[in-house]
Every structure is written in C-alpha cells, then in structure tokens.
Amino acid sequence: MKKITLPVALYCIIVSMASCGSGDNSKQTSATTNQPQVPVTPKDTSRDALIQAIRASERKLKDLKTFDAATYTMAMNAYADYAKYYPADTASVGFLFLEASYASGIGQFDKALKTYQFIETKYPQSKNIPDCMLGEAEIYNNNLKDTANAHKKFSEIIEKFPGTHQAQDSKMEIKYLGMTPDQLGKMFEEQNKAKEKKEGNKKTRT
C-alpha cells in the first residue's frame, strides 16, 4: 500500500499546482482582454489637410541632397490621395500628372503609364493630355524599348495635336525611332561634318 500512496499523493500535488496555474493564466488573459483599446484616429481627408500633406512632401523633395525613392513615393501618395477624394477639383489632374512624372523618374514605369492613361480617360479635355501622351511614348521608347507602341503613341500625338511642340517632338522621335545612342551619335557627327564642309565651301567661294 505504501508503494501506491506516494505516487497518488504526488499526482494530487501536480494537479493542484496545474489548477492554480490555469487560474492565474485565465485571470491574466481576462485582464489583457479587458484593457482599454487605443482608438484609431481616422485620416483627415479635408482639402486643407491633403494640401498640407502635399506641401510637406514637396518641401522634403526640395531639401533632398541625394536621391531618395521613399520621399518621392510619399509625394506621389499625397498627390494620389487628393485626386482620390476630390476628383472633380481642377487641381487633381495636375497632381496626377506630377505623380506619373515622379513614377517615371524613379523607374516605376508601369505605374506611370497607368496614371497617364487614367488622366487621358478621366480628364480628356485637360491641357495636360499632350504631355501625358508624350510621357507614355517616351517610356515605351526609352525605357521599355517597345518601338511599336512608341510609334503608335507618337503618331497619335501628331494627329490629335498638330502644331504643338509635342507634335514636333514626336516627329523628331519617329525619325530616330529604334536607333541606339551610338548610332545617333555617329549620325549627328556625320551631319555636323557635312554642315562644316558646306560652310567651308561657301567661305572658299567668297
């Protein structure tokens, strides 16, 4: 009987300890659950607040000593927020254009293209449309090396906005479309030599 009594007694002690521990844990969990939750402050989407956010991000951009993609992203988000909450505001299209320009500048070409295209669809009468289309075409040409879409976009600019400097730029871009920097450099060098030779011949005749 003595051989049985000790393990039974030990078992009772362990169960008792476990019960006490369980009670403490439940009280701690309950205390944690009952702690007051910190309220989440809703984002201020008033015009003044969003404009202040834009100005703050622009000041940070102005003060940059070296390139910082995070600061540009912050400015892009501020522009996008304003356009999101106030799409009918005349300032929104300009902010979206800046967002697309910055996206292109930091190498987010897909984002830039989507934003340019959104502007063209949402604000077809905007004065920014020719520059949006030119921005698209240059991304296709210079960054994505997509000459087919670049040619299509340049041609569209020439057709829709004849007489503008964007159309003139597009004509020049089409002329040299697909050429590498080395090819362009060689071509311009040959043109300069031909020009100098022509001017030299004129001086000789006089």
What can you tell me about this protein's structure?
With 206 residues, this protein is an all-alpha fold. It is built from nine helices and no strands. The longest helix is centred in the N-terminal third of the chain and has 32 residues, at 2-33.
Task: Write a concise synopsis of the structure shown.
With 206 residues, the chain is mainly α.
Mean pLDDT: 85
This entry's quaternary arrangement is single chain
List the total number of helices.
9
Unreliable residue runs: 1-32
Strand content: under 5%
Write out key terms for the chains shown:
206 residues; 78% helix
Give the helix/strand layout.
Elements: H1 2-33, H2 47-62, H3 69-85, H4 90-105, H5 109-122, H6 129-143, H7 147-160, H8 165-175, H9 181-205
Helix pairs in contact: 2-3, 3-4, 4-5, 5-6, 6-7, 7-8
